Amino acid sequence: MRFGHLVGYGAKYYSYLMSRAVASWIWQEYFQDDPFNSTNGQRYRHEVLAHGGGIPAKELVSQFLGKNITPDTLTQALITDLDNNQQKLDRYLKK
Q1: How far apart are CA 41 and CA 60, in angstroms?
Q2: Is the pLDDT of residue 23 over 90?
Q3: Taking the model in full, what pTM does it have?
Q4: Which residues lie below 8 Å from residue 26, measured CB to CB, with a gap of 6+?
Q5: What CA–CA distances, in Å, run from 8 to 12, 18, 87?
Q6: How many CB atoms lie within 10 A of CB 24?
Q7: Dist. CA 71–CA 77, nearest whole Å
Q8: 1-14 mean pLDDT
């Protein structure tokens, strides 16, 4: 039996979680209350997307959010995202 399909799986999974945490954090801070806020959208475009790969991602996100990226802040972003989704589900199921 071979387990070649598992090689690299862990790195991909944790990379996904990091990306999910950053995306959730940005959403919560800038777009959750007003998803179509053009001011925040333009700011995101100019401060994050415009740099492409020219600036390390951690530095870009940290500057954009105005906070250090740490395991605790990323974990909190995921927890808040889960809590928000649970609240939406609870409201939906009560209907």
Answers
A1: 15
A2: yes
A3: 0.79
A4: 44, 61, 64, 65
A5: 6, 16, 34
A6: 21
A7: 10
A8: 65
Calpha distance 91→48 (Å, rounded): 34
What burial class does residue 55 get, using C-beta atoms within 10 Å of its C-beta: 0-12 exposed, 13-18 middle, 19+ buried?
Answer: middle
| pLDDT exceeds 80 at position 55 | yes
- What pLDDT sits at residue 12? 75
User: Running DSSP on this structure, what letter comes out for residue 67?
Assistant: S
Structural domain boundaries in the chain: 8-94
Per residue in 26-35, pLDDT tens? 999 999 999 9
Alpha-carbon distance of 51 to 49, in angstroms, equals 5
Cα–Cα–Cα angle for 55, 73, 84, rounded to 5 degrees: 115
* H-type alpha helices, the chain: 9-26, 38-47, 57-65, 71-94
Output phi, psi for 69, to 5 deg.
Answer: -90, 115
Structure confidence at residue 16 (pLDDT): 86
